[in-house]
Amino acid sequence: MLSNAFFPKFPVMAAIGLVAAVPALAFAQSGSAGTRSGATIDGVGQTLTVDCEGRAAVVSGTENEISFVGDCPSLTVTGTDNRIRIALRAGAPVNVSGVDNVVTWSTAGKARPRVSIQGVGNRVAPAR
Known about the structure:
Elements: H1 11-29, E1 33-37, E2 40-44, E3 47-51, E4 57-62, E5 65-72, E6 75-80, E7 83-88, E8 93-99, E9 102-107, E10 114-117, E11 123-126
Parallel strand pairs: 2-4, 3-5, 4-6, 5-7, 6-8, 7-9, 8-10, 9-11
Antiparallel strand pairs: 1-2
């Protein structure tokens, strides 16, 4: 039970506050959660296919599995254990930071992206 320091004259309010907080905690810890705005993904445990539609692809979070299709001019990944597949423009910048992120890319022709990797265990490789 919450301390009466917050609700000294209303102990019932303290109990209600605790009960109200429990569902919020359960939601925060369950399954996948996150947001998407255009080609920007932020969250945990999401599995999505996203059309870049000419927008930069951005992923931040943990354990996301994202496939970007369409016209992707760049990719930025931050976080842990994300798995990203992406179709990039020729010479596109790819920036990866964090831990154990894996990016698999493809481009039209033989052009390669410009890759920058920071962190531990991150990998960027062409699709096979």
